[in-house]
Amino acid sequence: MSLPKNFLWGGATAANQFEGGVFEGGKGLSTADVVTAGSHTVSRRITFTTKEGEECAQDIMPYKGLPEGAVCGLQDGQYYPSHVGIDFYHHYKEDIALFAEMGFKCFRLSVNWARLFPVGDETEPNEEGLKFYDAVFDELRKYNIEPVVTISHYETPLGLANKYGGWLDRRCIGFFENYCRTLFTRYKGKVKYWMTFNEINIMGMLPFFAGGVTQMTPQVQAQAVHHQFVASAKVVKMGHEIDPENKIGLMIAYGATYGLTSRPQDQALAMENTKKYHFYSDVMVRGYYPAYQLKEYERQGVKLEMEAGDDQILKEGCVDYLGFSYYTSSCVSSEEGEDIGGNFSMGVKNPYVKASDWGWQIDGIGLRIALNTLWERYQKPLFIVENGLGAVDKVEADGSIQDDYRIAYLKEHIEQMDIAVNVDGVDLMGYTPWGCIDLVSAGTGEMKKRYGFIYVDRDDEGNGTLARSKKKSFDWYKKVIASDGADLEN
User: Fold this and answer.
1) For 238-290, what is each residue's pLDDT tens digit?
2) Which residues, in sequence order, are bridge partners of residue 118?
């Protein structure tokens, strides 16, 4: 079997993890630019100054919120990996040529909001930033590669965090509308596929990362994400009015959830865990808050502040498709179990699957389950916009990188995609493996946790030439695309 001829094969990235050029072209700082590097055992940290003038840092995980009056900013002696990333800012022509050589039909990237609106609340955009993305989109078009653009991918302008508390302030809706109007107008005819917020459900765990929100309470999280829901719905409607060809989707972090045993308590816990994913997509696909979430807010004492018309806005701004990331499944237990982490989520060890070096459980069948669950729930086209294996790659004496483990991971997942489409009847638009070129890990801030088909010479301390080279998986993925997924042999 194979996937349809119009299937969107490609790869995925985010500006804060690979673009660099943080002090060039009139760009302002984003929230990502004040987050330090970390590791598998040491959390990334947000740097800030207290209202008393003391320079401090707060762990991203677990995030407890920042002190009242704190102002986030840069500190001497800290390493911020987003500042250079892998320097796509200066290497974009070389990188896009490599994507074209692999046969990419599409390329997922994000626009860095602070490159266009350095503080976030300006009326007029930064023209130099607009010209950079003009050049990138033109380069992609030269090779007939369709841009898939995430509008906000953990890159909230730092000015919005410091001046307004991020998305907790409803005024951010208007700032976001202005930003999106600029994008839709400037890049009409150049970009067709958009997603409003990357992994919007991370707002429930890391609101600073996902929306520049400096506080951490159920009330704050609920209010901030409501503002994002309203903003997304308004933008979907606007995007269709500006260009009827636009396809505008949501994006959530997703994964199949299993109960560790057949104990009813474990299965009930798995159901509850899955609701935490579905809440966000329920609102953005169906256009209203689900009853189970409203009941949860009641139990938490959360009282949403909604303006007149918000309900109608949500109904009128439902997304065209559902994009999601899938790296791993999770397993939950009502009794004590061995903890294991993955992509900001926690669960217990599943004895029936293997795990990566970072503890992420490798489960291709879980992707088929996820595809079926989402398709049956929503009947909207699906798009796997992140999937991949973070691993330590060894450069051999001859310069080659034999990443058979990555090929095995991707093969297992593409096989399950094929079954979901050709056996189960799922409507799947495309597949963009994460970090198609090596970039900074969002979770740990490392470079050694590599995902790409293309190796980048840069280490965890920021050393290296930034030279690009092909891994074994490069030619393998090229063959997969050329065969529409029919030829998966290594």
Assistant:
1) 999 999 999 999 999 999 999 999 999 999 999 999 999 999 999 999 999 99
2) none
Q: Quick count: other Cβ atoms within 10 Å of Cβ 52?
A: 8
Q: Are 462 and 81 in contact (CB under 8 A)?
A: yes
* Residue 101 CB burial class (10 angstroms; 0-12, 13-18, ≥19): middle
Are 238 and 184 within 8 A, CB to CB? yes
Alpha-helix runs per DSSP H in 187-251: 207-211, 218-242
**Strand, helix or coil for residue 56:** strand
Strand partners, 146: 106
Which residues have CB under 8 Å from 432's CB, separation 6+? 8, 9, 10, 11, 12, 106, 107, 108, 148, 383, 384, 385, 386
pLDDT value of residue 339: 55
Per DSSP, the three-state class of 363 is coil
* DSSP helix/strand/coil, 170: coil
**Residues 34 and 48: beta-carbon distance below 8 Å:** yes
Short-list 198, 194, 285, CA closest to 246: 194
Two tokens, residue 463: 């050393």
CA 308, 312, 316, 317 torsion-angle sign: positive
In angstroms, the Cα distances linking 293 to 143, 277, 301, 418 are 45, 11, 12, 33
Q: Which of 139, 155, 199, 446 is catalytic?
A: 199
* Angle, helices 218-242/171-186, rounded to nearest 10 degrees: 30
Element (DSSP H or E) covering residue 108 = strand 106-110
* Weakly modelled stretches of the chain, pLDDT under 50: 342-343
Tokens 């070096």 belong to: 357
386 is catalytic: yes
Contact 409, 354 (CB under 8 A): no
Alpha-carbon gap, residue 378 to 321, rounded angstroms = 10
Nearest to 426 by CA among 468, 380, 472, 484: 380
Angle at 340 between CA 334 and CA 343, to 5 degrees: 115
Q: What are phi and psi of 448, to 5 degrees?
A: -70, -20
Asked about 199 being catalytic, the answer comes back as: yes
- The radius of gyration of the chain's CA atoms, rounded to the nearest angstrom, is 21
CA dist 146 and 137 (Å) reads 9
Q: Give the pair of three-digit tokens for residue 220.
A: 């704050």
Output the pLDDT for position 337.
Answer: 58
Catalytic residue among 19, 155, 386, 446, which? 386
Contact 324, 374 (CB under 8 A): yes
